[in-house]
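for the record, two folds in this file. i put them one after another cuz i was lazy. first one right below, seq on top, structure tokens after. the second one comes after a little note so u can tell where it starts
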Amino acid sequence: MAPNMNNRFLAQLEPSDRAAMAPLLRRVVVPMDLVVVRQNAPVTDVHFPADAQFANLIRFPDGRAIETAVIGQEGVTGLAPFMADRPCAWEVRCRSPGEAWVCPAAALRALAAERPSLMRKLLTLTDLYQAQAAQAAACNAAHPVPQRVARWILTAADLSPEQVLTFRQEELARLIGARRTTVSEAASSLKRLKLIAYARGTIRILDRAGLESASCECHAMLRARTEAVLGEASMQPESA
């Protein structure tokens, strides 16, 4: 296994746990929109993103879909249902193509049962994801759309080693739970303020400090919690 795995969770494992996992992992290229876990289906494989990103989506019977989370190089897909060995209540889809480490879920679950230190790391990440879900629900109820757009752009940047982000307007609208036109107006406002460059579904942060000021406090709250779990050195710079 390469020393630089480009996945923060794998990188901060105990060396013995990482070595034990090595035979289970293979590096794959994940294309855009690939569904790696279907809603209400078992989690057969988990993905540890390197530079790919995934989204959790809840699909409704009428065809609507709402994104509830973005998973990047901080962690792993389908974690809670994988740990519980239960069908996944949401769909996991690749939202930004790239590379990831994939591992058979059953083999990793068995390995974690044998290695308490690995199990603790997985449970700690599960707790972090629960905190993120709770914060997102509170954010959507308490903060206006422009602040939430800034927050999600910052969050995506934290989870990616890339300088240019892939973020379609319809995806931002699903994440935020707002109309696409409202999200477009908010993104255009950030662009006019020269905080971001935005064109054809790609975003580049021009002024990170300014974007943090335009965001609600939810980003800073979750960033601090993520640093506590994964280590400050593993996070993206606080400002450009």
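(here's the note) second protein begins now
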Amino acid sequence: MRGRDLTGRGIATFQRAAKADGADKSGLTALTYATMANFATDAAVAVALANTLFFSAATAESKMNVALYLLITIAPFAVIAPLVGPLLDRLQRGRRLALASSFAARGILAVLLIFNFDTWALYPLALVMLVLSKSFAVLKSAVTPRVLPPDIDLVRTNARLTVFGLIGGTIGAGAIAAGVAWAAGSIGALWFAAVLAAGGAYLSLRIPSWVEVTEGEVPATLSYHGDDTATEVISRDRAATVKPSKRRQPLGRTVVTGLWGNGTIRVLTGFITLYIAFVAKSRTEHEPLQQALMLGLVGAAAAIGNFSGNATGARLQLGRPTLIVLRCTIAVTVVSIAAAFADSLWMAALATLVAAAASALAKVSLDATIQQDLPEESVASAFGRSETVLQLSWVIGGAFGVMLPTEFWIGFTVISAILALGLAQTVMSYRGHSLLPGLGGNRPVHADQEVPGATGSMRIHQPTGKNTP
């Protein structure tokens, strides 16, 4: 009776927290439950495949196979990524269905994995599930602004979703999945993942229908054509006279700087996620228990960093969020270089802690920048664009984590060189320049909307682009 009483109180406390600040009426509570299901499904799949995909795949031959399958998965994702944002802009009715479909597909793949657990199909099936998980994140980012309660801003809403996902999904469901795997093996954990995916599909369809309403929205675009004679740049006053479907909202310099910084950090987090697993297995002098302890150390560092970064970001007064992103990018680059010189597990764990905290804090800062710098009608589209870029950056980092040798100094030296390039591009974007024309900060801080297809004679207003963040 005491156990039932405590359980009931715990559930009631959780429901109050999920429905607080008007989240139940706005639809945020329903999205919170779906997000928790996404975290939970990922955790169950990770537990199910721990002994197979990571621990048993680190020999040279198997690692080449995993690298091949990962590249096969990255190739279509790299092609699709630039299309996800525009597709969301045109998806007027069906975003809830798209969220549910990402769960349904993972549930089907989990069942397929059960019957192909000891075959070559394990790797492509598992990696497709990874891509579907990232696709859910992209879709969720586009839906979140539409379920925003009146008393919470977008930054704290995103941090809130992440915290609920980590506690209720990753930690809670991960612990249950571990117990199921201990009792019934990896197959049992996969069945649990399939059940979670089915529940996630149902919860996605429970999100209120008003998230489908996109009337009056202006699509955001990563490119900037302010100096193009075939593009008309219009002021915000003039924009009211042009149909939203005809307009495009370029991302300003601060948002682009935030994207470059966050993308650089995500490369490191993706790299560490897969790289440490292969390093643990490749150290043949370690027993399975020691290998598990190595992964547990790094996993604990990632969890602590992620939680602390989100908690800190939710409480900071983000007066200059772009500067926070820049400092986070510098921090992860420095700690990666230190890990290359130290060549030790402890330094790799510290790099994981810093990278996870910086990733969470930089993402919160990017959210704040988007909300502050873009007009309300373009915020949802901008989130879809930004999340696509960040997920693709994570997958690219994961590819390096699979392909690079398992000596710490080699792996972290290569990834540090990549991070240094990303940091250079972030700094140049912050200062209004770019290593890549059209994809950096050589644009105004707050770009005015554009009308594609116009002629130079139709130009109404041309921003100078000389202002600084």
